[in-house]
Design a protein that fits this description.
Shape: elongated
CATH class of the domain at 12-241: Mainly Alpha
Structural class: mainly alpha
CATH topology of the domain at 12-241: Growth Hormone, Chain: A
Order of helices and strands: HHHHHHHHHHHHHHHH
Length: 371
């Protein structure tokens, strides 16, 4: 496919970096991002269900706090072990395992007999989430060339607000007729998406090269290059710019935690770590507790207020969306005005109409008139 100097074997990283972005990369992004999306929905759900769970099990605020924190404890454990496991067993294997863990744990949450078991299952679910979150970004970054990597990683991060919106909408719809257990059961179903990962997503050639499995890495790269040439309808790909051999790269030293706290990266590690810590402290802290606090405050003040009403606040998550995927200001304002027009009753929705339509009107009214 490419002309190389005699005796020089290109690394998978060199072959991947010179590939043009095409449908293969976008399809791979869609699959990995969708798995990441399902993970985030599971994580966001507790904020919308905590009030109902607290009421059913008769929990105090302190007990509810421990229950809400269980998944984050699991996430910390999963994130700490995922790197070592992925380096040892491969990116794809750990990614698939994480999906099985959170899918099974979500189902177990739906049949938890009491709050203690629910906390245990939420912690187990958190382990799967913690393993998948860094692995999804790693797997994607090892396939996408550096020139486009930032764009695709940023788009995948846009999953967070969208997933929170969908978790709120799902909770809002399901809690009208069912309970919080049904929500957890439904969120276990996307774990079967692991089959798509198994069949479509290849193992990272970069990892295979790093493990000395060069023949397997070269075979995967041959398949990828054939797919890209077929999609682009070309017979030759750009020439590979060879860099150092695997042995020379290994001689430069090892990465990991030691590299992050080395003098060259210490300041950046502290700055980025601090940024993420305080950003997620507010983000998770607010969204985990807001539902239960609103239910507790308003339950005795407004007739008809319940946990299912809290799904409405999910639409406010659009403020977290990055500019790349949010609507333009004028278009968003026009859409908001149209919704407000409906909400104020200008279209005279009949009270005898379908209950679902009336519920949608009430939801739009709460969002547009009380942002």
């Amino acid at each position: 496919m490419t002309r190389l100097s005699v005796g020089i074997i290109p690394l998978s990283a060199d072959r991947l970096e010179r590939l043009p972005i095409c449908g293969f990369h976008r399809w791979l992004f869609a699959i990995i991002a969708l798995a990441f999306f399902f993970d985030n929905i599971d994580l966001a759900t507790m904020g919308f269900l905590l009030g109902s769970i607290k009421t059913e099990f008769g929990l105090t605020s302190a007990q509810a706090g421990l229950l809400a924190s269980a998944s984050f404890v699991g996430m910390a454990a999963g994130a700490l072990m995922s790197g070592a496991l992925a380096d040892r067993f491969g990116r794809k294997w750990v990614f698939q395992t994480s999906m099985i863990i959170w899918g099974a744990a979500s189902y177990l949450c739906s049949i938890a007999p009491d709050a203690t078991w629910l906390a245990i299952f939420r912690a187990l679910l958190g382990v799967g989430m913690g393993m998948e979150t860094p692995l999804a970004q790693t797997l994607l970054s090892e396939f996408v060339p550096a020139k486009s990597r930032g764009k695709y990683l940023a788009l995948m991060e846009g999953n967070w607000p969208i997933a929170f919106i969908c978790a709120g909408v799902l909770s809002h719809c399901v809690l009208w007729n069912y309970d919080w257990r049904t929500v957890f059961f439904l969120e276990a179903i996307p774990a079967f998406f692991v089959l798509c990962i198994r069949w479509v997503v290849p193992e990272s050639p970069r990892w295979l090269d790093a493990r000395g499995r060069h023949a397997e890495a070269a075979a995967i790269m041959d398949r990828i290059e054939k797919i890209i040439m077929r999609r682009l309808k070309v017979s030759v790909l750009p020439t590979v710019a060879t860099t150092a051999s695997p042995a020379a790269q290994a001689a430069k030293g090892h990465g990991g935690l030691r590299a992050l706290i080395s003098p060259a990266y210490r300041k950046r590690t502290v700055m980025i770590g601090g940024l993420w810590f305080f950003a997620l402290l507010g983000f998770y802290g607010l969204n985990t507790w807001l539902g239960a606090l609103l239910q507790q405050y308003f339950l005795g003040r407004h007739t008809g207020f319940s946990q299912r009403s809290l799904g409405d606040r999910a639409l406010g998550q659009e403020s977290y969306m990055p500019g790349d995927i949010s609507w333009g200001n004028s278009r968003c304002l026009r859409f908001r005005a149209d919704l407000e027009y409906v909400a104020r009753g200008k279209y005279q929705l009949s009270r005898r109409g379908n209950d679902a339509v009336l519920r949608f009107r009430n939801m739009v009214h709460s969002v547009c008139l009380h942002p």
